Amino acid sequence: MAFRDVLNIEVAAGNGGDGSMSFHRAKYMEKGGPDGGHGGKGGDIVLRAIEGVESLERLVGRRKFKAPNGNYGEGRLRQGADGEDVVIEVPVGTTAFDEDSGKVIADLVRVGQEKVIARGGPGGRGNSTFASSTRQAPRFAELGVPGRKRRVRLELRLIADVGLVGYPNAGKSSLLAALSRANPAIADYPFTTLSPILGVVERHDASGFPLDERFTLADIPGIIEGASEGKGLGLEFLRHISRTRLLVYVLDVTRDPVEELRQLQAELQAYDPSLLSNVALVALNKVELVDGDLSAMVEDELAEFGLPVLRVSAREGQGLAELREAVFQLLPDRELWAQQSALEIEPEEVVDAALRVVFREDAPPKGEGAPERVWEIHGGGFEERIVRFSRYLDDAAEYLGNLFKRQGLYNALKRAGAREGDTVEIGTFRFEYFEEEESR
């Protein structure tokens, strides 16, 4: 299976079911009371993190997900069934972004963690809800609310404790194999021919007995100059580094390790400056190819970066025990690190609670007569409320008028300078303003 770490999908939560406009009918009862039931809630779209899946490839072939709508309410106060949620299973380490805003809407770092990324619309209330002593036969009900639709970009960021950072052929794969007994293999990868490889490194005591301590080590495809600009593996490489608690810069002692480290840090800085604040050390690899004096001189030159430097040979096993122990000693606590590096999640959408009244003058038809005075209503939840009665506006007019009065709409219009006969506009709905409405 090909490795895929980015996938664009479209999701649509279910619409809420409409409330029922119904009246009780029974033998010997000529006029029964309202008995319309409520509509059911639409299904949510949910992301769930699972283990045992290392790629988003399993989702390829299905890019659109739609949750069922809630059922309509029925007579005899029967409520419509809720729509079932649609659960999309993704690998641990998946981050979801809203394509339009670019904001993070889910960040799944634990097995079993779930996040609703598109919430189903609530169902409408049946006409039984609106009965009162003065309104005994309401001939209107509430419509269900449409579910959330959005375009989502899924990004898989490997969950690894330690990431090996280095240019191609620096010896990262060999180092991973030597430290963890993993078997790095070349696999299909949409950007080059390499796939990230994970290994587990265990801690042992002086006698070689395994202790109950381990960390995961990621050999991520080699970085190249310009990666932060998307060249080569580019952002695909850097994305996987962002999850690691500790970075190991793997440098080839036979090349120019000082310049390579400088370039590697420049790429990290350009992509995400916070990566340079990660705990890090340097593994100066392939020391078996040079004499001890040269490797010691290079180690002294690397001291300017302020990082621990360990001379190793992945091929011959030199210095690996010291490197392994250094990582165990330096690795930050997982829970503390997770709290400090948590991504900011976009909050749930809420109705704009701030009521704003905006005045405008519209030109009269054919340029004749006085301009039309229009008052636009924004916020306060008025548009959301009136839309839910759009099918029954004439019958629900009295109910809505009293509701808007209680919520301060008429007082706000009067204070703003509305005159009798002015037009009030709430979304796509328009009605005429009368001052006597306030005294009803």
Automatic annotation (TrEMBL):
Keyword presence, Lipid metabolism: no
Xref: Pfam families: DUF1967, GTP1_OBG, MMR_HSR1
Subcellular location: Cytoplasm
Function: An essential GTPase which binds GTP, GDP and possibly (p)ppGpp with moderate affinity, with high nucleotide exchange rates and a fairly low GTP hydrolysis rate. Plays a role in control of the cell cycle, stress response, ribosome biogenesis and in those bacteria that undergo differentiation, in morphogenesis control.
Family (UniProt): Belongs to the TRAFAC class OBG-HflX-like GTPase superfamily. OBG GTPase family.
Binding site residues for GTP: 166-173, 191-195, 219-222, 285-288, 313-315
Domain Obg intervals: 1-159
Binding site for Mg(2+): S173, T193
Protein's recorded name: GTPase Obg
Superkingdom per UniProt: Bacteria
UniProt cross-references to Gene3D superfamilies, sorted A to Z: GTP-binding protein OBG, C-terminal domain (3.30.300.350), GTP1/OBG domain (2.70.210.12), P-loop containing nucleotide triphosphate hydrolases (3.40.50.300)
Alphabetized GO MF terms: GTP binding; GTPase activity; magnesium ion binding
Positions of the OBG-type G domain: 160-332
Main location: cytoplasm
InterPro entries hit by this protein: G_OBG, GTP-bd, GTP-bd_Obg/CgtA, GTP-bd_prot_GTP1/OBG_C_sf, GTP1-OBG_CS, GTP1_OBG_dom, GTP1_OBG_dom_sf, OBG_GTPase
Assigned GO CC terms: cytoplasm
Alphabetical keyword list: Cytoplasm, GTP-binding, Hydrolase, Magnesium, Metal-binding, Nucleotide-binding
NCBIfam families: Obg_CgtA, Obg_CgtA_exten, PRK12296.1, PRK12297.1, PRK12299.1
UniProt subunit comment: Monomer.
Organism: Deinococcus gobiensis (strain DSM 21396 / JCM 16679 / CGMCC 1.7299 / I-0)
Biological process (GO), any one: ribosome biogenesis
Needed co-factor(s): Mg(2+)
EC number: 3.6.5.-
Coiled coil: none
Lineage, uppermost ranks: Bacteria, Thermotogati, Deinococcota, Deinococci, Deinococcales
Domain OCT: 357-435
